Amino acid sequence: MKVADVDGVKIAGILFEANATNSPILLQVGDSGTTVNHSKDPICLYDIFCRAGGQFNGQASCFVTINSNNVIFDHNWLWRADHGAGAGWTSNKNNTALTVNGNNVTCYGLLAEHTQQFQTLWNGNGGRTYMYQSEIPYDPPNQAGWMHGTVNGYASYKSFRQCDDP
Questions:
Q1: Would you call 68 exposed, middle or buried from its count of C-beta atoms within 10 A (0-12, 13-18, 19+)?
Q2: Are 127 and 100 in contact (CB under 8 A)?
Q3: Please, which of 32, 113, 126, 158 could form a disulfide with 104 given CB 3.0 to 4.6 Å?
Q4: Band (166; pLDDT cuts 50, 70, 90)
Q5: 4-13, 53-62, 84-93: range with lowest mean pLDDT
Q6: Strands in 18-162 per DSSP E
């Protein structure tokens, strides 16, 4: 699903399931490089659930990408199946749960679990996260399968944002 970069969009109570064919992004909000300011009427995403695996095998490079500015992302569970019937490192693929490129994005209750790279990539400035829950994957086949260059694995939350604090 691709959401236009316009004021006041509200999306709530939806489940996105990755399918056998890889999806680059299950939910994209705004276009890359946007400069539109939505502070007077923010985009709101409530109760958004994304998964790869669970009921059937699925693949998604990224579950949610927020390019828009001034987005409220509230109570969202982004999950790759890494245990249970049929779940596996090569059958349920997902690199990243959430990528934030927009500025002034606020997350309340962000749950990102079991991705195969960084679970959350935060590139925008001025954003905040309140209550972050994550679990690294239980199912990498070996250490070589869970490497980030020469680093043994991936951080759950990787921020590239600029901080105003000293």
A1: buried
A2: yes
A3: 126
A4: very low
A5: 84-93
A6: 23-29, 43-52, 59-66, 71-80, 93-100, 106-113, 120-122, 128-135, 157-159
Q: Which two tokens stand for residue 121?
A: 């990539």
Of 115, 99, 109, the closest CA to residue 53 belongs to: 115
> Which residue is associated with the tokens 């997902």?
94
Give the DSSP letter of residue 22: P
Three-state secondary-structure class, residue 10: strand
Give the span between the Cα atoms of 114 and 97, in whole angstroms: 9
* Cα–Cα distance list, 161 to 15, 39, 108, 115, 153 (Å): 29, 19, 18, 21, 21
CA 134/CA 8 separation, integer angstroms:
29
30 within 8 A of 3, measured Cβ to Cβ: yes
CA 120 to chain centre: 6
**pTM of the full structure:** 0.94
pLDDT at 162: 54
Which residue out of 5, 7, 17, 135 is catalytically annotated? 135
